[in-house]
Amino acid sequence: ILRRQRKDLRDAMAASVIDPLKATLSVDDEQLARELATMDPLLFERHVMSFFQSAGMMAWVTKASNDFGIDGFARHQKGIIVVQCKRYESNAVGPDTVREFKGALEDHPDCILGYIVTTSRFTNGARDTADKNEKIRLVDLTDLGT
């Protein structure tokens, strides 16, 4: 079962890949928050992955469904960076999301880092859960605005 899941994950990583695309957004923090929160979810994923591409990495977005909780990948010289995007207007990202993402990272042995990116914020429980794993990085709206 584990081998089949890993194969399914590798297939999802390569199937119907979508290129990153940096969106043109407002520089005003309040307007930027509204634009990001109402952005099409796939465009938000493409926008997030464009930052990895801008850093010189090969980056791509996974297909819209059956992505195993992973929205994008970036190839770093030391391994793969895995990204999950949560485009929320007001809901905070909780610890369950972080735990599920941690499981997805464990299924990908080449993963060196995992980012959860949200247009909202993380609960204290989510931050505590992420702090227990050295590979997980949390990026919230305040980080996206800088």
- How much helical structure, as a percent, in the residues? 40-55%
- Rounded radius of gyration (Å): 15 Å
- Look at the structure and give the mean pLDDT: 82
Record field, number of beta strands = 5
From the N-terminal CA to the C-terminal CA, the straight-line distance is: 42 Å
Contiguous low-pLDDT stretches (5 residues minimum) are none
Q: What letter string, H or E per element, gives the SSE order?
A: HHHEEEHEHEH
Shape: globular
Structural class: alpha/beta
β content, as a range? 15-25%
Total of DSSP H or I helical runs spanning 4+ residues: 6
The major beta sheet can be summarized as: 5 strands, mixed
In order across it, which strands form the biggest sheet?
1-2-3-4-5
Give the topology.
Elements: H1 2-14, H2 29-38, H3 41-54, E1 58-61, E2 72-76, E3 79-86, H4 95-106, E4 111-118, H5 124-131, E5 136-139, H6 141-144
Parallel strand pairs: 3-4, 4-5
Antiparallel strand pairs: 1-2, 2-3
Structure in a nutshell:
With 146 residues, the protein is α/β, with parallel strands linked by helices. The chain has helices spanning 2-14, 29-38, 41-54, 95-106, 124-131, 141-144; strands at residues 58-61, 72-76, 79-86, 111-118, 136-139.
